[in-house]
Amino acid sequence: MAGELGREIEYHQAIGSTQDRARERAAATGVMAAMLVVVADAQTAGQGTRGRVWHAPAGTALLASWLFRPAPDEPALVSLLAGVAVGRALDALGAPGARLKWPNDVLLGDRKLAGVLSHGTSDSSGGTLVLGIGVNVHQVAAELPEELSGRATSLALAGHTVDRLALLVRLTAELDRVAAAGGRAAALAEWRGRASLLGRAVEVLREGAEPVAGIALDIAEDGALVVETAYGRERIHAGEVTVTT
Hints:
25% of the residues lie in helices and 30% in strands. The protein is built from five helices and twelve strands. The chain has helices at 2-5, 18-29, 75-92, 164-179, 184-194; strands at 8-12, 35-40, 61-68, 99-101, 105-108, 111-121, 128-136, 201-205, 212-219, 225-229, 232-236, 240-243. Helix 3 crosses helix 4. The longest helix has 18 residues, at 75-92.
């Protein structure tokens, strides 16, 4: 299995966070942890964006973190393109139609199916990039958090039967494709084609800054969201987007 993935696999029945563990391994073993994926059946401290917790009953989701060392150049763009890798993997496994919400959500219909959380470092060895991805696979409605009612889904709820191991294998291959410099232009074009926000009125909340309101026009070559505001075009590199119309 590790040979098929081209990575060392560290599996846990339960762990606090696969991303925290991947970061620990990178810090402890340096360049020897160049190709690693940490996988768990359950997380007790799973992480979402903006300090949220990722909830998933044991055995219902793909919960994994991929370590890249050295980090690919343009790590922010590679983090964005991880959503394309998820979409491609799902297409190949018979669950087509995934759409992407900037910067890191994967949707089926208008409901969140998966999320990407990234963390990068820089050092004399080329730095690291950890991509933590959670995909809701087998959850039934009662297993989704009450606060996400109407806003989240799983592959099972959408009528798809997908094996988590097969998804891990396919997603690993697709992540390596989008991380390679030669595959990014096509992946960015595909991101735009899967985008759920472009052309719509949005508000972007940014930590420590005023919200930005306008029309989401495009995704720039570096992964920034381009918004047409009343005062001109603005490039946004981080924030939480809400559709306002």
